[in-house]
């Protein structure tokens, strides 16, 4: 797996992604307690993210308002 990542165990049994975790094949990210994705993405061709307690991801950013043809 080739990954450009900033993975850090901030607490025992917790995975925190602060950048990108990725590969060109199959990838599993797992933790006994929590997986926190505060980075850009976790993904590959086939991705499994598993946690005993919770998986958190940032809320999606709202799309910009499209210009109206009537204005």
Could you report the average pLDDT, rounded to the nearest whole number?
77
Unreliable segments of 5+ consecutive residues: 1-5
Spatially, the strands of the biggest sheet line up as 1-2-5-8
Distance between the termini: 51 Å
Shape: elongated
Residue fraction in strands: 35-45%
Please bin the fraction of helical residues.
under 10%
Largest sheet: 4 strands, mixed
As a whole number of angstroms, the C-alpha radius of gyration is 16 Å
Order of helices and strands: EEEEEEEE
Structural class: mainly beta
Number of beta-strand segments:
8
Please give the oligomerization state of what you see.
single chain
Query: How many individual helices?
Result: 0
Structural commentary:
With 71 residues, this protein is an all-beta fold. The chain has a domain at 7-54. The chain is 0% helix and 44% strand. The protein has strands at 7-8, 14-17, 20-22, 26-31, 34-37, 41-43, 46-51, 54-56. A 4-stranded mixed beta sheet has the order 1-2-5-8, with no helix packed on it. It has a two-stranded parallel ribbon with strand order 3-6. A two-stranded parallel ribbon has the order 4-7. A hairpin with a 5-residue loop joins strand 1 (7-8) and strand 2 (14-17). Mean pLDDT is 77; it is low at 1-5.
